[in-house]
Automatic annotation (TrEMBL), chain A:
<protein>
    <recommendedName>
        <fullName>Protein farnesyltransferase subunit beta</fullName>
        <ecNumber>2.5.1.58</ecNumber>
    </recommendedName>
</protein>
<feature type="region of interest" description="Disordered">
    <location>
        <begin position="1"/>
        <end position="45"/>
    </location>
</feature>
<dbReference type="InterPro" id="IPR001330">
    <property type="entry name" value="Prenyltrans"/>
</dbReference>
<keyword id="KW-0479">Metal-binding</keyword>
<dbReference type="GO" id="GO:0097354">
    <property type="term" value="P:prenylation"/>
</dbReference>
<keyword id="KW-0637">Prenyltransferase</keyword>
<feature type="compositionally biased region" description="Low complexity">
    <location>
        <begin position="1"/>
        <end position="15"/>
    </location>
</feature>
<dbReference type="GO" id="GO:0008270">
    <property type="term" value="F:zinc ion binding"/>
</dbReference>
<dbReference type="InterPro" id="IPR026872">
    <property type="entry name" value="FTB"/>
</dbReference>
UniProtKB/TrEMBL annotation, chain B:
<dbReference type="Pfam" id="PF01239">
    <property type="entry name" value="PPTA"/>
</dbReference>
<feature type="compositionally biased region" description="Basic and acidic residues">
    <location>
        <begin position="91"/>
        <end position="108"/>
    </location>
</feature>
<protein>
    <recommendedName>
        <fullName>Protein farnesyltransferase/geranylgeranyltransferase type-1 subunit alpha</fullName>
        <ecNumber>2.5.1.58</ecNumber>
        <ecNumber>2.5.1.59</ecNumber>
    </recommendedName>
</protein>
<dbReference type="InterPro" id="IPR002088">
    <property type="entry name" value="Prenyl_trans_a"/>
</dbReference>
<dbReference type="GO" id="GO:0004662">
    <property type="term" value="F:CAAX-protein geranylgeranyltransferase activity"/>
</dbReference>
<keyword id="KW-0808">Transferase</keyword>
<comment type="similarity">
    <text>Belongs to the protein prenyltransferase subunit alpha family.</text>
</comment>
<keyword id="KW-0677">Repeat</keyword>
<dbReference type="GO" id="GO:0005953">
    <property type="term" value="C:CAAX-protein geranylgeranyltransferase complex"/>
</dbReference>
Length: 506, 582
């Protein structure tokens, strides 16, 4: 049913033009004459530059239920909190003609540099996730165009203190090595780049440690004695490919079969398959609820195992997955939620938003060159390629720029209005913005790399010349769709170790 | 010598000093008798150097209030000084008063003094120098002491001229010389107490070490034993030491440093380079605990004290995965009763709702515990019931907590609790909030992963012929019933599709149901009414399934144009799918 809008005039307004010098706050008008008020305003004040905001971002969705539950109340509150920002009514912003604010680079950059500095005692709860602060902050700074190579020595020193002799990196000195913190350290090293950074990693110990986490069912534990989940699968695939580690198993590995029939990647895609739920999304472990963050882990992991055109349809029900991913985008917010009937959150701009380049690549036709590109239409399960985008890039960009920027002195990016910014959200909101602003395409598969891992060639298309809702200067640096760092950074670290291993790893 | 006693005491008896209002009434006066036995030398003179530990002579309180006129220094040129307000001033006054004619002599020369004063000055110089006196004959010496007695000359005197700054500063950066006498005495008393405690503490450690080595007491020839209460006394002593160190020097003595039980562990502090990034300014208590954790983990110690240490750290930082795994190792190594640990964990879980590690810990506990009860159906059922009760309590606080639900599905698989109780618990949660998708997901797992009537290893989106028809019917009906409560709620729609897929049924089998929520599709304006975009989405797929391409396309177009515009890109792609399929 089409429920009557219960929010402010702004929310109820038809597609409306808003003049820049409009300083009337019609936000809290009440009564039935709201629409008239807005119309009059539009007529009388439309002389100046005008802003155009499609009403899908200023109105409640056309289909709403009357039944109120905890879930619908939380959803209504979120919409109410977002609407003033989306409707160009926040005093702290300057909106462009599309009703979209500029990205506040300087404040965010300052916030992120601070996140790398000395953290106050209240951060004690982050004591086991310090490598994440390195990755989040360096990645966000990089996407904002900052050169982070001057952090090289400091990152190398910090990482060294977190590395264990038995392989891998812990959350801090003398903490158990963990898949997630190791992933974060390796990406941080790749972001600062250079031999000094790369050489921190004890790759032999790392390889042995990964072997000890590899399970007989194909998945990876996140640490010795820790849980086995899809984060482990994705992080392992990233670590192995970036560091050019051998796939052979040690006899100490729980997945060791007594011969060379199994390797680090054996059964990994099958494990990912077990995490797809009846909803079509992906859960953290088999038998749990579909969740946005795990969807990215699943697709990222598969995309490292083989050509996405081949491996994704082979192991996942793609139509159900796309249906679920697409359902994550809400109006009027424009952002993504992480689960069915949960709220939008800026971080899913990456976790869910970052799935679309991978899915779109999986639906793209194989390169005509035919070089190693065996993937043909049958691999794509008979699904057509995507013409423009499977999701509303405009919606996501609006949500990010309007709702996720902390416009106070603090800077940084956030979950949603009313929440504090932090390094985590800064990183993933910007990653999402980057993938919404830039278009990646997948060429035919390259020949298999030295590790036997498929190495599909991702290339970013030049920026579109047609009108964008964001300012040209606000384009965020493109990041690799799987590694989530700039392409040149992932290339640099991989080619460094490839060259190093030309005389053998062992 | 008796005669001398009066004047020996002089420098300590400043008659011009009024009692300070700040004076401690319980202050213990110095013993004047002690001074009487002293030789007329400068040995006992106060030493106002930096060595403030010297017990200050505090005669002032015991001195009768004497009017300034009684002083023997009235003849000097210097005016009587007012009473000292600080210990630094007091030292200066004592110094000056011990040298009655010195200031005048320094200023104008010996000849400027009156003859009697000259004699007095010379006498005091001689009286203080045994070497000079040795050169005097017996008569001259008698003469000297007569002068000294008659003029009541001070004999003992501070050797060193007080200098500013020599007192040092206290923890607050305050100059100690600026203390009042009472405050200074209080500080000195505390320093003495601390020293005494430290000596006793060393003695305790010594005894404990000898007891540990089984040595014999040299006197009694009995083995040295450490009495039960001695450890408690030592704990009490360390508390006092910590309080004194903090008060006197601003030093913190950590909780573990204070605990005699931890004396054998050498903590391993964080040793990060100065340039380390995102370094946390740890609170001292956290840093200390972690430094002990590193030490015991390194030596792989599993003991009750380690268990307590992990609890302490978890209370400060429950996200510290390393400490959780170490805690589990302790429990398993000591074979502690798992139910006790679960009981403890319940409190921690309720306190830290968003924590991830708690649930993996619980998982490890159950893995360890289950084999011990697996053969006893009664015990398993009791345990399942208590777990269910706890999960209900925690999900009441946070209905969609991902980690709790993941643990719940693990638990069902582990204990085999696929039955009616679990299903009823989930139905209650769906009744509370029909939009709780976590509960819907769990129901799907309960029904379609139950090994009693499903094929293990079947993918969630694939059909499973093993599932009985009546179960599929029941679940279809359940989803439909719940859909009517709020047709735009996607959870039951996703559930319905999931059930149909499992049952291998065509989507078209629910076409009449889906059609209930859509009226007048494609008609103008108000005639078209969609009460659920999910119904329309499903209808589009049903039409495609039936080969009704145009109808499918219309449904998708209306979704893109009007009913679910944010997903326009997806609906457009779905329209392209129709062409491929066709």
């Amino acid at each position: 049913m089409s429920a009557p809008p219960k929010y402010s005039a702004a929310a109820a307004a038809p597609p409306r033009l808003r003049s820049d010098d409009d300083d009337d706050d019609d936000d809290d008008d009440d009564g039935n004459d709201d629409e008239e008020t807005v119309d009059e305003e539009f007529i009388s004040k439309s002389a100046g530059p005008v802003t155009m905001i499609p009403d899908v971002f200023t109105q409640l969705p056309p289909v709403r239920d009357d039944l109120e539950t905890d879930t619908s109340e939380a959803q209504d509150e979120t919409v109410e909190a977002c609407l003033p920002f989306l409707a160009g009514q926040d005093d702290l912003f300057e909106y462009n003609e599309h009703g979209v604010p500029r990205i506040n680079r300087e404040k965010h950059i300052k916030f992120l540099h601070n996140s790398l500095g000395r953290l106050p005692g209240g951060f004690v709860a982050a004591d086991a996730s310090r490598p994440w602060f390195l990755y989040w902050s360096l990645s966000a700074l990089t996407m904002l165009g900052e050169d982070v190579s001057h952090y090289r020595e400091a990152v190398a020193e910090t990482a060294r203190g977190m590395q264990n002799d038995t392989g891998g990196f812990g959350g801090g000195g003398r903490q158990l090595s963990h898949m997630a913190t190791t992933y974060a350290v390796v990406l941080a090293l790749a972001l600062v780049g250079g031999e000094e950074a790369f050489e921190v990693v004890d790759r032999k110990a790392m390889w042995k440690w990964l072997c000890s986490l590899k399970q007989a069912d194909g998945g990876f534990q996140v640490c010795m004695g820790g849980e086995e989940d899809i984060r482990g699968a994705y992080c392992a695939a990233v670590i192995i490919t970036l560091l050019n580690l051998p796939l052979d198993l040690t006899p100490e590995s729980p997945a060791w079969t007594g011969d060379s029939s199994a390797n680090l990647f054996t059964g990994l895609a099958r494990y990912v398959r077990r995490c797809q739920t009846f909803e079509g999304g992906i859960s953290g472990q088999p038998d749990a609820e579909a969740h946005g963050a795990y969807a990215f882990c699943a697709l990222g992991c598969l995309a490292l195992l083989d050509d996405p055109r081949r491996v994704i349809p082979k192991y996942l029900n793609v139509p159900r997955l796309i249906s679920w991913l697409s359902s994550r985008q809400y109006a009027p917010e424009g952002g993504f939620s992480g689960r069915t009937n949960k709220l939008v959150d800026g971080c899913y701009s990456h976790w869910v938003g970052g799935c679309f380049p991978l899915i779109e690549a999986c639906l793209s036709p194989a390169a005509s060159s035919g070089q190693g590109g065996q993937a043909d239409d049958s691999d794509r399960a008979g699904l057509p390629p995507v013409s423009e985008s499977l999701f509303s890039k405009e919606g996501l960009i609006r949500y990010i720029l309007c709702c996720c920027q902390d416009q106070s002195k603090r800077g940084g990016l956030r979950d949603k209005p009313g929440r504090l910014s932090d390094a985590y959200h800064s990183c993933y909101v910007l990653s999402g913005l980057s993938s919404a602003q830039n278009q990646w395409v997948l060429a035919g598969s390259d020949d298999k790399s030295a590790t036997g891992v498929a190495d599909p060639a991702w290339t970013v298309l030049p920026p579109l010349e047609d009108v964008q809702i964001f300012d040209k200067r606000d384009r965020i640096r493109p990041i690799h769709p799987v590694y989530a760092i700039p392409d040149e950074n992932q290339r640099a670290i991989r080619s460094y170790f490839l060259a190093k291993d030309s005389e053998g790893f062992f | 010598m008796l005669a001398l006693s009066r004047c020996v005491a002089f420098p300590f008896r400043s008659p011009i000093q009024p009692p300070s209002p700040l004076e401690n009434p319980h202050h213990r006066p110095s013993k004047p008798t002690k001074a009487t036995t002293m030789p007329p030398k400068g040995k006992a003179a106060p030493k106002p150097k930096g060595t403030e530990a010297t017990k200050p002579p505090s005669v002032s309180t015991s001195a009768p209030v004497a009017p300034p006129s009684t002083t023997t220094t009235t003849t000097t040129t210097s005016a009587p000084s007012p009473g000292p307000s600080t210990v630094s001033e007091r030292s200066q006054q004592r110094f000056d008063e011990s040298r009655p004619y010195e200031a005048a002599r320094e200023k104008s020369g010996l000849s400027s003094l009156a003859p009697a004063e000259q004699v007095a000055w010379i006498s005091s110089q001689l009286a203080r120098s045994s070497a000079a006196r040795a050169r005097l004959g017996p008569k001259a010496q008698r003469e000297l002491w007569r002068h000294v007695n008659e003029a009541s000359l001070p004999i003992r005197a501070p050797k060193t001229k007080p200098s500013s700054g020599s007192w040092g500063k206290d923890r607050a950066g305050q100059y100690i010389g600026g203390y009042t006498a009472a405050r200074f005495d209080d500080r000195a008393a505390k320093r003495i107490s601390l020293t005494a405690l430290e000596i006793a503490s060393r003695a305790f450690k010594h005894t404990r070490e000898r007891a540990r080595k089984g040595l014999l007491d040299p006197l009694s020839r009995e083995p040295v034993v450490l009495a039960e209460n001695e450890t408690d006394q030592e704990k009490n002593r360390r508390r006092q030491m910590a309080a004194l160190r903090r008060e006197l020097y601003g030093q913190t003595m950590g909780q573990f440093e204070q605990d005699p039980e931890w004396d054998d562990v050498v903590p391993i502090p964080q040793d990060e380079p100065e340039m380390a990034l995102a370094a946390i300014a740890y609170p001292a208590s956290y840093a200390e605990a972690i430094s002990y954790l590193r030490a015991v983990m390194q030596k792989k110690e599993y003991s009750p004290r380690c268990l307590r240490l992990t609890e302490h750290i978890i209370s400060m930082n429950p996200a510290h995965y390393t400490v959780w795994l170490y805690r589990a190792s302790n429990i398993f190594a000591m074979k502690l009763p798992i139910p006790d640990e679960i009981e403890w964990l319940n409190g921690v879980a309720l306190e830290h709702l968003k924590n991830y590690q708690i649930w993996h810990h619980r998982h490890l506990l159950v893995d360890n515990y289950y084999p011990s009860i697996a053969d006893d159906a009664e015990k398993v059922s009791q345990f399942a019931a208590s777990e269910r009760a706890f999960l209900a309590a925690i999900l009441a606080q946070d209905t969609k907590n991902y980690h709790v639900w993941s643990y719940r599905s693990y638990l069902v698989g582990k204990l085999g609790t696929w039955g009616a109780d679990e299903l009823a618990a989930i139905e209650a949660m769906i009744a509370d909030d029909v939009r709780n998708n976590s509960a819907w997901s769990h129901r799907f797992f309960l029904v379609f992963s139950n090994p009693a009537h499903t094929t293990p290893g079947t993918a969630a989106t694939d059909p499973d012929p093993a599932v009985p028809r009546d179960i599929v019917d029941r679940e279809v009906q359940y989803a439909m019933d719940k859909t009517y409560l709020a047709p735009q709620n996607q959870s039951p729609w996703n559930y319905l599709r999931g059930v149909l897929a499992k049952g291998g049924r065509r989507l078209a089998s629910v076409e009449p149901f889906a059609a209930e929520f859509v009226a007048g599709l494609g008609e103008v304006d108000e005639a078209e009414l969609v009460r659920s975009t999910h119904a329309l989405d499903l209808l589009a797929e049903i039409y495609a399934e039936k080969g009704e391409r145009e109808k499918a396309d219309l449904a998708l177009r209306r979704l893109a144009e009007k009913w679910d515009r944010i997903r326009v890109g997806y609906w457009e792609w779905r329209r392209k799918c129709l062409d491929v399929a066709g």
